[in-house]
Write a structure and sequence with these properties.
Blueprint lengths: L6 H17 L2 H10 L3 H9 L18 H14 L5 H13 L5 H4 L5 E3 L9 E4 L7 E6 L2 E6 L17 E4 L4 E7 L1 H37 L3 E2 L2 E2 L4 H30 L4 H27 L10 H13 L5 H12 L20 H17 L2 H6 L9 H9 L17 H13 L5 H16 L2 H12 L5 E4 L15 E5 L2 E8 L10 E7 L10 E7 L5 E7 L5 E13 L3 E2 L5 H5 L12 H17 L12 H29 L7 H23 L11 H15 L6 H11 L9
Parallel strand pairs: 1-3, 9-12
Antiparallel strand pairs: 2-5, 3-4, 4-6, 7-8, 10-11, 11-15, 12-13, 13-16, 14-15
Helix pairs in contact: 1-3, 1-4, 4-7, 5-7, 7-8, 7-9, 7-10, 8-9, 8-20, 8-23, 9-10, 9-11, 11-20, 12-15, 16-17, 19-20, 19-21, 19-22, 20-21, 21-22, 21-23
């Protein structure tokens, strides 16, 4: 797995970044806005080789891959480079591929653009940079032609972004046929698909830069005596937009990788990538402008330029909702597409042989050991815990895969993540095992010999479970505000207090307890961790039922006595002790339950009849909505992959984990709600099968925004770690 550029690509990025930052300054952008084009910028890009990036070497170009061009386009988007850059890159490629002379385009001597639609159907059409494009490469029925467009056929007119967009009368142009027939038109179709990817990269660069500008402003601007970046009303929407922008970028990366690998999902992914990028960039730029307040509306600040370009670049094709419909047709109606030869792609999502072997072993184990009775008990929560299966997994060495200290095999992060995904595909989420591993590691590293003998041995054998006693009724996500007291009594401790949301306490043997041992120091310094037997005198477990068919608990501790040997770590050192298991946090997403919701909706759409008598899934609007849910699943997977890769490769923690968790939980609820609407009223029932599953997913999704820290907490983490905004929490 790899999420990094090669050293050569990094050098290309830096080279273009330096040039564009020097050339696309605020005054230069405004000057270009007035005339729609910057000749000096265009010539400089040509000298750097921009227009020859995708031209085959035998035709005088650099012969680089699509991903290399996307690296350049991301920088062009970040700096708002004026002119039809993506179109010129691809026009030069197509001319070179078809045996024409690409040199005038590559050298910058002639400005070229690309017609995105067939001239036979649209003899007049809007062309990116059309007011200045002397050459246009287009499809005309069975021909691919190079058009010499006279100035009279491309009149400049005011437009949203002042970027030389023009509606061009292509019938007035002199046409040279470059090639004819299915192969030629397929090549033209392929460059249109590649245009979507290059534009997606540019829009991702634009969106991220707009957010960085807003974050910088919010880190300096004060209101009511505070930096406005400390207000969650400012920082949280920026964090949401950042996830949207990064998700679209990763989706475009995935599309290139899938084209290179010949994946059947590649064409779907291309359509979803450009749709997601157009949507994300537009939202990000507008939210960034909102951060500037009234100043953002003035032409003194550059942010308005980002708002206008975010809409202008993709809309030259037409309504972006058409890309969702296109993705739906490609996914559900068998529509095919001609895809480009993308060349080398350094980005890699392959999970590796160890992970594949782990998946195969999990599949075989579940097939051999899960009975229908067991499967009927499966649930995503603690309610789905099956003790006999849990013990069999321990005996098979499948319970604590990454933890040799717990008898595990020490498999790598990719294999561990793959194993978790395989279990979830079988419907067995098994949160009890995850908590048992966390508690087991803490005991192994900081526990007494007595704890290791009496507790850890049982956890390792799959004979005992532990739950987490962190949350309290008045503390919520702020675990460091714990008030449950641990008072020393000789060589023992007395524990008094209440813990809320102690999931699994009704079936667990122990609770990992965070207690207040020193009220006279800052709250995070006066905490101590204990393991408390839940069968101890003075412990009361009271059920709390949720509308998700999930039980949690409120647990009461009244004069509970435990020996000092059941303490973990130093007195008042509970925060350090908690860090012993943080390595298990690799930024999981909710992509798997999101997939369950989509598959259930797809099944229902195949059985529900539309008003025209056809299956509902044959309806274009339905296909589009299913495709949107698919995009969010893929983005969730990509965020999880990135977080896992960063942990495995020891990359800096820049908020990848919180982004994976927060974004996927929010999209899970958004999509579950929409899919429930789409398949109503059947989806309201709990009929066995897809209706019951979709119904459950809708209820489950609400909890995912709260588990493991609310979305609000994770938004703050993203804003601070990634955007550099000031701390929003006390």
């Amino acid at each position: 797995m790899n999420f990094e550029l090669t050293s050569e690509q990094q050098m290309v990025r830096e080279t273009f970044a330096r040039f564009l930052e020097e050339t696309c300054t605020g005054p230069q952008l405004r000057a270009a806005e007035q005339q729609g084009f910057d000749p000096a910028l265009w010539q400089g890009l040509a000298e750097l080789g921009a227009f020859g990036l995708r031209v085959p070497e035998e035709a005088g170009g650099l012969g680089l891959g699509t991903f290399d061009a996307m690296v350049v386009m991301e920088e062009a988007g970040r700096t708002l480079a004026a002119g039809p850059l993506a179109e010129a890159i691809l026009a030069a490629r197509l001319v070179g591929q078809l045996g024409g002379d690409a040199e005038p385009i590559v050298s910058g001597a002639r400005v070229a653009s690309l017609a995105l639609h067939d001239l036979a159907a649209r003899p007049r059409q809007f062309i990116a940079g059309g007011a200045v494009a002397e050459l246009v490469v287009a499809r005309r029925g069975d021909d691919v032609v190079l058009l010499e467009v006279p100035a009279t056929a491309r009149p400049a007119e005011p437009n949203l972004a002042g970027n030389a967009l023009a509606e061009v009368d292509l019938t007035a142009a002199a046409a040279t046929v470059l090639a004819s027939g299915p192969e030629a038109t397929a090549r033209h179709a392929a460059v249109v698909e590649e245009w979507k990817l290059l534009q997606a990269a540019a829009l991702a660069g634009l969106g991220r830069q707009a957010l960085q500008m807003a974050a910088a402003y919010a880190s300096e601007r004060k209101q009511f005596g505070q930096l406005i970046g400390q207000f969650q009303a400012i920082s949280h929407p920026l964090a949401d937009c950042l996830c949207e922008v990064d998700g679209a970028k990763l989706l475009a990366w995935k599309a290139v990788r899938e084209i290179a690998d010949g994946s059947p999902d590649a064409a779907v992914n291309v359509s979803l990538a450009i749709w997601a990028a157009a949507d994300a960039a537009g939202k990000a730029a507008s939210q960034a402008l909102q951060t500037f307040g009234g100043y953002g509306l003035t032409t003194e600040y550059d942010i308005y330029l980002y708002v206008l370009r975010a809409k202008a670049w993709p809309l030259v094709w037409g309504d972006p909702a058409g890309w969702l419909e296109e993705a739906g047709r490609r996914r559900y109606a068998g529509e095919t597409a001609s895809l480009p030869d993308v060349g080398d792609c350094p980005i890699e999502f392959d999970i590796g042989e160890e992970a594949r072997a782990m998946i195969a072993e999990i599949d075989a184990f579940m097939t051999a050991n899960v009975t229908p009775e067991m499967r009927a008990r499966f649930h995503y929560s603690w309610e789905g815990h099956v003790p006999e299966l849990h013990k069999k997994m321990a005996e098979a060495g499948l319970l604590f895969l990454s933890s040799p200290e717990l008898g595990g095999r020490g498999v790598g992060p990719y294999a561990r993540s793959a194993a978790r995904g395989a279990l979830e595909r079988h419907g067995y989420s098994n949160p009890a095992a995850g908590v048992a591993e966390m508690v087991g590691l803490m005991i192994a590293r900081t526990g007494s010999d007595e704890l290791k003998r009496d507790v850890l041995s049982r956890i390792i054998a799959g004979e005992a479970l532990a739950s987490l006693g962190y949350s309290e009724p008045g503390a919520g996500s702020d675990v460091f505000a714990a008030q449950t007291r641990a008072t020393p009594e000789g060589n023992a401790w007395r524990i008094d207090g209440t813990k809320m949301f102690t999931s699994g306490a009704n079936i667990a043997d122990y609770v990992l307890m965070l207690t207040r041992t020193n009220p006279d120091v800052p709250k995070h310094k006066g905490l101590t961790m204990f393991v408390v037997p839940l069968k101890s005198e003075g412990v009361t477990v009271q059920p709390v039922y949720t509308f998700q068919d999930e039980r949690t608990n409120i647990t009461f501790y009244d004069n509970v006595k435990i020996p000092d040997s059941w303490r973990l770590g130093e007195v008042d050192g509970g925060v350090r002790t908690m860090s012993a298991a943080l390595e298990l946090e690799h930024g999981g997403s909710f992509a798997k339950p999101m997939s369950h919701a989509l598959h259930a909706a797809e099944d229902l759409c195949r059985t529900i009849t539309a008003p025209d008598g056809a299956p509902l899934i044959a309806t274009p609007r339905v296909q589009a909505r299913l495709a949107r849910a698919l995009a969010n699943i893929w983005i969730g997977e990509l965020f999880e992959y990135r977080a896992t890769w960063a942990a495995a490769e020891k990359k800096p923690n820049v908020g990848y984990g919180p982004m994976a968790k927060m974004h996927s939980s929010e999209k899970f609820l958004e999509d579950a709600r929409d899919l429930l609407d789409l398949t109503a009223p059947l989806s309201l029932t709990k009929r066995e099968g897809p209706a019951a599953m979709l119904n459950q997913c809708y209820r489950h999704a609400h909890g995912t925004r709260i588990y493991g820290g609310t979305s609000q907490v994770h938004r703050s983490m993203i804003a601070e770690r990634v955007l550099g905004l000031p701390r929003t929490r006390g």
